Amino acid sequence: MKSHEMIELINEFMRKYAKDDTLKVWLGPELNVLMANPKDVEVVLGTLRFNDKAGEYKALEPWLKEGLLVSREMKSHEMIELINEFMRKYAKDDTLKVWLGPELNVLMANPKDVEVVLGTLRFNDKAGEYKALEPWLKEGLLVSRGRKWHKRRKIITPAFHFKILDQFVDVFESGSRELLRNMEMDRLRQAKTGLNLYDWINLCTMDTICETAMGVSINAQTNADSEYVQAVKTISMVLHKRMFNIFYRFDWTYMLTPLARAEKRALNVLHEFTEKIIVQRREELIRCGNKEVDTFMFEGHDTTSSALVFFFYNIATHPEAQAKCFEEISSVMGQDNSTPVTYELLNKLHYVDLCIKETLRMFPSVPLLGRKVLEECEINGKLIPAGTNIGISPLFLGRREELFSEPNSFKPERFDVVTSAEKLNPYAYIPFSAGPRNCIGQKFAMLEIKAIVANVLRHYHIDFVGDTTEPPVLIGELILRTKDPLMFTLQEHVY
Ligand code: HEM
User: Fold this and answer.
1) Using CA atoms, how far apart are residues 304 and 458, in angstroms rounded to an integer?
2) pLDDT value at position 68?
3) Cβ-count burial of 22 within 10 angstroms (0-12 exposed, 13-18 middle, 19+ buried)?
4) Greater confidence, 468 or 252?
5) What whole-number distance in Å separates Cα of residue 397 and Cα of residue 431?
6) Atom 41 (ligand 1): residue with closest C-alpha?
7) Residue 439 Cα, ligand 1 centroid: separation in angstroms?
8) What residues contact residue 277 under an 8 Å CB cut-off, 6+ apart?
9) 204: Cβ below 6 Å to ligand 1?
10) Strands 22-27, 30-35: parallel, antiparallel or unpaired by DSSP?
């Protein structure tokens, strides 16, 4: 939306909906009131009663630091709690309406509605938030629509065939060996304070996705300062900020920020790199092109590393589950730690599989999905106007008591074949989304997570450093993470 359109829209809304020159606008769960009556303005600005600044001012912080202008903020984890509370209080038929500026957003939490939205190709267009991804991913699979999406999906699907996945296991094996070297180095340095596994794991998944998708090694794990690795990190940070900070959302204000310049520099590095690779490896890559390589870079490494860190958190805080994983891994892989993991062996890790699934229920790497409704429609009796954004939250669904008993407890057994939670509720358990536009990398991701888990747990017993009585505070950005890093100590297994 252009800036002048915004002003015209506000004028129109003022004329149509304001009462006593006052317009109410829901922005997420926050009520915003636009006041246009000088008498009201006098009350607000004329005294110190209304001294707290609105959330939008947060974007000014990089320049103003702790200066006078900014004094109040709302943390993302508070946002998640607020959504939960609003859902409980205000949702009708498990559906919450939220006005975000002049756009209607509907958060759906009923698996029956989720099925209608995700189960067919009727709602194949992505919500406005995904626009921030376009400068990087262009028309890649994640953001493309219509026939273009369909064509690409068909071309790429064979790349995830199990015969091809089989070959990727070698890459997961060598990537996780490098990870072990970094972990061992860090363990010796920080034996007592604990180490932040996320950073090491993230470099590892970056290496594996590059090697599998592009056939080149970027050696992120041995060369974390390289231009490409830094550019991937910058762009992920930029995307998070653009999607979740209203100030960065509109192009006209965004273009003025230092963030936009950082994004441009990083994009140059990323696109130059992928183009160079494509030229070098024209033959093999000709079929999917650089857009998909970029899409895999984005979808394929932060998601997997987020899942892995939450997995280690869950088993570190549930020693009985860790012991069972260790026993299973030892009995399947044998006592010799140097035996490489293989596709067949990983497929035998049944209990580890349950723990990964349960982790993704509690901590889905993608906490929110969005679709755009192009034409007015009806979903299970609810009339949805054209232009509405539909939000579906795998995080919220996975924690609903009506769908999963004791939703905040880690209970891997609920995914066991007999009572499998995912089979009972295919549209309630949706960490990989569902339907025709689900995650194309699901099997790849599960296999990679298993390979890394198997190699790490064969070597180390993992303990969590920190308060185990309080759950970690979550930040619901594009990819789920925690407010503070999760810290662990490692003890070598003695056979
Ligand atoms: C634990 C790891 C992962 C999780 C939880 C995850 C989750 C998801 C979700 C929820 C979507 C749907 C997004 C939406 O509708 O907006 C998605 C789409 C996608 N994912 Fe994943 N993903 C993971 C790993 C991967 C990996 C490793 C790859 C590639 C190697 C990948 C490639 C893709 C692609 C290309 C799409 C777009 C598919 C389409 O629109 O047709 N993902 N993923």
Assistant:
1) 20
2) 28
3) middle
4) 468
5) 10
6) 437
7) 4
8) 214, 215, 216, 285, 290, 293
9) no
10) antiparallel
Q: How far apart are CA 62 and CA 134, in angstroms?
A: 25
What is the DSSP track for 443-487?
Answer: HHHHHHHHHHHHHHHHHEEEEEES-SSSPPPEEESSSEEESS--E
Check pocket membership of 296 for ligand 1, CB cut-off 6 A.
Answer: yes
Q: How many CB atoms lie within 10 A of CB 289?
A: 16
pLDDT digits (tens, 9 = 90+) for 378-396: 899 888 888 888 888 898 8
Cα of 35 vs centre of ligand 1, distance in Å, is: 43
Q: Where are the alpha helices (DSSP H) in 34-161?
A: 38-46, 61-64, 76-90, 111-119, 134-137, 146-156
Cα 74 to averaged position of ligand 1 atoms, centre (Å)? 29
Chain segment 274-324, per-residue pLDDT in tens: 777 766 665 555 445 555 667 777 778 889 999 999 999 999 999 999 999
Nearest CA to ligand 1 atom 14: 369
Confirm or reject: Cβ of 273 under 6 Å from ligand 1: no
CATH 1.10.1040.10 fits 128-492, yes or no: no
Nearest atom within ligand 1 for CA of residue 370: 16
Name the residue with the closest Cα to ligand 1, atom 9: 432
Probe ligand 1: pick from 131, 208, 210, 299, max atoms within 8 Å of CB?
299
Question: Residue 213 CA: which ligand 1 atom is closest?
Answer: 30
Q: Is residue 329 in contact with ligand 1, taking CB distance under 6 Å?
A: no
Give the domain ranges of the chain.
3-51, 128-492
CA–CA separation, 454 and 448 (whole Å): 10
Contacts of 332 (CB under 8 A, 6+ apart): 345, 348, 349
Which residues belong to the annotated binding site for heme? 439
- Residue 169: what residue type? V
